[in-house]
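Researcher: I'd like a structural prediction for the single chain below. Treat it as a standalone chain; there are no partners to consider.
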Amino acid sequence: MRALVISGGGSKGAFAGGVAQYLIQELKYDYDLYLGTSTGSLLISHLALQKIDKIREIYTHVNQKSIFNDSPFIIKKDKIGNQQISINHWNVAKRFIRGKKTFGESKNLRKLIGRVLTIEEFNQLKTSHKDVVVTVSNLSSHETQYKSIKDFSYEDFCDWIWISCNYVPFMSIVYKEGCEYADGGFGSMVPIKEAIDRGATTVDVIVLETELNHLNNLPSKNAFSLLTNLHGFMMDRIEKQNISIGKFVATNKEAIINLYYTPTVLTTNSLVFNQEKMTQWWESGYNYAASKNTELNEIKPNED
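Model: Treating it as a single chain, here is the predicted structure.
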């Protein structure tokens, strides 16, 4: 049983899409299980349907308005064209005055999911042999939960995809089934263990971070940048722990793991959605997967 696991990573999901495109179209991998966290959950349904051109078009054309109905960020360009990102303090203050729990709101993303994944596509996947599973964090019970397309209605599964992506406190917190839910990455950034526990013997894993840390974060300028750095630190620790546990479980169950990291740092703020950069990242992901598999093919004869 072969599984594809895609980690969280916001806009960096475009890179994962490029890697997955090469694995599916060029290497002809036919996955039985697709498991995604956060941005990974947005990709996996269409990858399972092999509608790669459709999801590529979406990923390379989204912007801030596609995701946020109330954005916590201000994005400006400096004199030489570089993006400058800061917190929209006025917007955040208004939300707190109105009693909102988060700095921003991502209801536009939920609408986008409903437009992109049709009920016909949902039914096609639900009745197929393939399983599509998304990761969510139950903040009320302090549990990481995995939601399979086989167990839910169309509207509920679209909700779970959306919930998996909601990077609190910058995006929406969702109350569902009597509990508060948020981004799956808070519990399982790279759910390798879950894929193996569900029976996978070979797991291709796309990790939307570099294998080694290549830079230090700049000192925090204010409370919001400090919070961003803390979130980044926490997610980095969870990711490394997930991978270590996944490798341990794979060894015990004689499963094979193939890891695909980003070769360079793509961005330091994955909640900024830039169409031009995401188009480049998709192509970079495809080319990286091609070069990595070429290197592996060149090594294998020498090993024999």
